[in-house]
Backbone:
């Protein structure tokens, strides 16, 4: 995506990417709407039936469904939803009758908080372990960390979460058992952090193993390149070569991981949220699908879909900033 | 040691220091029963509140909170009997189509305004509006023909039909007419009630706190607040109890056993065991849409072929009672003289053969008119229901009946149930404490209501309609005895069992009882809860 105008990107290509992304997002929303609409049952019927024995004639039920707009054709309902969404109105939950925006906002901060901390753990420890393993390739740390990362990657996340909770919260009482804060007045930052430790570790572990090994591979690959070997043969020190080639090259991997992580920031973690009673969006998403709460599912999908696309664009953009070969088409052509 | 080694060592030291600082706990040990009791009492909810717009609430958890901060014209006592609250007395007209409530004059909203008849009229208007109230509530209040506030403390309600059941609708909490313009969407919206507790705080997904109302007309609660932690997982509830994070919680029979089997836990917690008006059942669709269940002998054979007591003993550790009739035992009028159809596979086989279902080709499945006795059971796939379904499947196989399992999710279940796309169906109901079985037995509810088996019996219809118009309580119960006996003979439904609920409670809490209504849904309920210095 180099540019002869000197910009770090080609405006035509960027515009094409944005258009494609917008079309993709619309496609995802249409598909989600149609798929959920196709599933048997609806949120109005669920609400009526879940309330237990009472009289609800078919006519009365039809009236309720009509009020919720469920009597209209699927394309009409989608256009109505899309029009409202463009005006910033995501509608009302068919289950709770609360505004979808309020429902999401009441849960989103908890999810972002948890995912941000987990991601920070993944990145910081992943980089440190990955780089150090690569630098000490074949050594004790490399071998031990390799085995450990493999074991951690293979572990079921829920099992590890339960183990952490049982040992560190139930048995040894080092960390809180559940929740985002203790009962009482507004929590301090220290209390917030203490509550974050176990769920964020449980959430980070699989990602940490993946990122550590990915960073290690990318770093090693770069330190074995012809350019790196040439620098070593020219007398440049090993640490310098490691940094100039290995570390810098692995930043490309880091950029990719950042892009992949972004949609995960808001998609929630059902298992972690259940085990640690974390009031996030994960379980809410699952419950809304089960309840056929279309407005909520659409609202959540819009947010996650938008972030996925944004993450992908951001990743590409950062890659171009980091890798000069991508900025200059002639350099890319010559390798 | 290279720069890389030094960097790594420094990073590890920093991490360790941070971990130690963050993990420093200043919490006192919470399992010391001699420590001073906490102020408020903290329990567990199985799910978060749905909304603070209480008329829209049709889930049990939101209704619990609405009921605690609200008050109503009538409510129920520990036996589920109607008792006066804000209404001090009421009178029916001769034709029982007009009900006049006389209200007390010292009830106050939490903002200090008096509760008046205008609030009752306003509440009825909200509860009968499908835009503003939950469907199950609207279906009750639609029975009102008119409602008038005669003066500040007298309300006259007229009904289209004279039904003894209508008074129970006035157990819904009253709503403040003077706050009619407020929107529950406002970020600072706080529900205003007139009950013994005031709304405190809702931390979404985490907890709800309600505070004692010092101005309540019928006394002040004995603890300054009640709090409810949202904990879906039963295992986490047990951990929370043991860590002192909560003081009482409902648990499963298996987890209750952990408390019972541990001497230390037994010292700290007492266990309440109580029956709620709940019933698990299998409905056999008897409307002729399938060749199996139109014959009462076949339906009784199903009941004889299912070992309900055995299931309770082996799987539920005896936590429940084998089902007999549509009335769970806590509901008034439960006929204890009716014997459940005993587990008797021989009798089941005999009845099936009498009905013409015989395994002529010895393939292990009975046939009749060339059709195998093979049908499907529709149910919601969850841990408990799957276990029950599999047990029933095995037992029916032993009498040469093939039952295929048809597990689905909740939404699909409701849709197929309503559309009657099933041959048999397994579900559970939480019944009201009023014994009226109209919704589950009357023929008008057979096509798409809660009469899932499709029972259409003129005699049962007549008795139910007569009982609904009978205002003498004993006379009503006498009619329901006849209904239960006839339903038992027809057996449209096999009542599997009535489960028992368990509550683990900190022994220092006094006054917490578990009648058939549960610990909170009755008067005086949580008003009596208090801490004592010593565990009981």
Residues:
């Amino acid at each position: 995506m180099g540019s002869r105008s000197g910009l770090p990107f080609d405006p035509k290509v960027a515009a094409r990417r944005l258009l494609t992304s917008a079309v993709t997002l619309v496609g995802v929303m249409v598909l989600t709407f149609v798929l959920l609409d196709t599933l048997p049952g609806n949120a109005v019927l669920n609400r009526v039936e879940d309330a237990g024995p009472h009289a609800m004639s078919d006519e009365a039920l039809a009236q309720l469904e009509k009020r919720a707009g469920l009597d209209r054709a699927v394309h009409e309902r989608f256009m109505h939803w899309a029009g409202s969404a463009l005006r910033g109105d995501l509608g009302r939950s068919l289950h709770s009758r609360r505004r979808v925006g309020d429902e999401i906002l009441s849960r989103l901060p908890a999810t972002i908080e948890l995912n941000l901390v987990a991601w920070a753990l993944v990145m910081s420890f992943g980089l440190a372990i990955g780089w150090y393993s690569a630098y000490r390739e074949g050594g004790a740390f490399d071998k031990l960390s390799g085995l450990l990362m493999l074991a951690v990657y293979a572990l079921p996340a829920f099992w590890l979460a339960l183990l952490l909770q049982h040992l560190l919260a139930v048995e040894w009482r080092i960390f809180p058992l559940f929740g985002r804060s203790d009962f009482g007045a507004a929590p301090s930052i220290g209390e917030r952090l203490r509550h974050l430790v176990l769920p964020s570790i449980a959430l980070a572990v699989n990602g940490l193993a993946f990122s550590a090994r990915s960073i290690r591979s990318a770093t090693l690959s770069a330190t074995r390149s012809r350019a790196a070997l040439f620098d070593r043969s020219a007398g440049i020190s090993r640490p310098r070569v490691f940094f100039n080639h290995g570390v810098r090259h692995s930043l490309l991997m880091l950029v990719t991981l950042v892009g992949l992580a972004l949609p995960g920031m808001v998609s929630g973690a059902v298992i972690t949220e259940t085990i640690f009673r974390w009031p996030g969006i994960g379980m809410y998403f699952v419950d809304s699908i089960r309840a056929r709460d279309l407005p909520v599912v659409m609202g959540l999908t819009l947010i996650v879909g938008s972030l996925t696309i944004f993450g992908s664009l951001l990743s590409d953009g950062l890659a171009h900033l980091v890798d000069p070969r991508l900025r200059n088409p002639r350099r890319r052509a010559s390798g | 040691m290279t720069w890389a080694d030094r960097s790594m060592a420094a990073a590890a030291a920093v991490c360790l220091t941070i971990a130690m600082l963050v993990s420093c706990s200043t919490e006192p040990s919470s399992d010391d029963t001699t420590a001073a009791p906490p102020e408020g009492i903290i329990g567990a909810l199985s799910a978060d509140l749905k909304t603070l717009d209480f008329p829209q609430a049709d889930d049990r958890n939101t209704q619990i909170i609405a009921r605690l901060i609200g008050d109503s014209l009538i409510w129920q006592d520990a036996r589920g009997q109607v008792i006066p609250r804000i209404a001090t007395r009421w009178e029916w007209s001769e034709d029982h189509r007009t009900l006049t409530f006389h209200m007390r004059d010292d009830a106050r909203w939490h903002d200090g305004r008096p509760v008046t008849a205008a609030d009752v009229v306003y509440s009825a208007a909200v509860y009968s509006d499908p835009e503003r109230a939950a469907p199950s509530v609207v279906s009750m209040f639609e029975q009102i023909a008119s409602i008038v506030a005669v003066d500040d403390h007298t309300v006259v309600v007229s009904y289209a039909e004279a039904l003894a059941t209508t008074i129970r609708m006035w157990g819904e909490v009253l709503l403040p007419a003077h706050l009619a313009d407020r929107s529950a969407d406002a970020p600072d919206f706080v529900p205003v009630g007139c009950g013994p507790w005031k709304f405190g705080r809702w931390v979404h997904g985490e907890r709800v706190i309600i505070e004692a109302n010092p101005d309540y007309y019928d006394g002040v609660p004995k603890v300054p607040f009640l709090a409810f932690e949202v904990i879906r997982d039963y295992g986490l509830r047990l951990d929370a109890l043991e860590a002192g994070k909560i003081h009482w919680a409902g648990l499963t029979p298996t987890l209750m056993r952990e408390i019972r089997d541990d001497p230390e836990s037994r010292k700290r917690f007492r266990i309440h065991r109580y029956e709620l008006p709940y019933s698990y059942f299998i409905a056999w669709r008897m409307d002729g849409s399938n060749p199996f269940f139109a014959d009462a002998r076949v339906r009784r054979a199903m009941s004889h072929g299912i070992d309900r007591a055995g299931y309770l003993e082996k799987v539920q550790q005896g936590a429940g009672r084998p089902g007999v009739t549509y009335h769970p035992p806590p509901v008034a009028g439960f006929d204890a003289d009716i014997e459940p159809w005993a587990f008797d596979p021989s009798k089941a086989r005999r009845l099936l053969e009498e009905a013409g279902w015989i395994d002529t080709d010895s393939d292990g499945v009975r046939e009749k008119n060339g059709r195998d006795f093979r049908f499907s059971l529709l149910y919601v796939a969850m841990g408990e229901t799957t276990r029950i379904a599999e047990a029933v499947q095995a037992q029916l196989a032993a009498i040469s009946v093939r039952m295929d399992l048809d597990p689905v999710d909740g939404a699909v279940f409701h849709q197929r149930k309503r559309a009657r796309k099933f041959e048999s169906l397994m579900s559970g109901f939480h019944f009201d404490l009023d014994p009226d079985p109209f919704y589950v037995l009357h023929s008008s509810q057979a096509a798409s209501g809660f009469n899932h088996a499709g029972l259409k019996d003129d005699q049962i219809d007549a008795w139910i309609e007569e009982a609904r118009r009978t205002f003498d309580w004993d006379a009503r119960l006498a009619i329901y005895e006849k209904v239960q006996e006839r339903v038992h003979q027809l057996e449209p439904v096999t009542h599997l069992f009535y489960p028992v609920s368990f509550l683990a409670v900190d022994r220092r809490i006094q006054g917490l009882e578990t009648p058939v209504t549960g610990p909170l849904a009755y008067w005086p309920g949580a008003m009596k809860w208090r801490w004592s210095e010593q565990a009981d």
In short: Chain A touches chain B through 66 residues (CB under 8 Å). The CA atoms of residues 325 and 334 of chain A lie 9 Å apart. The two ends of chain A are 14 Å apart (CA to CA).
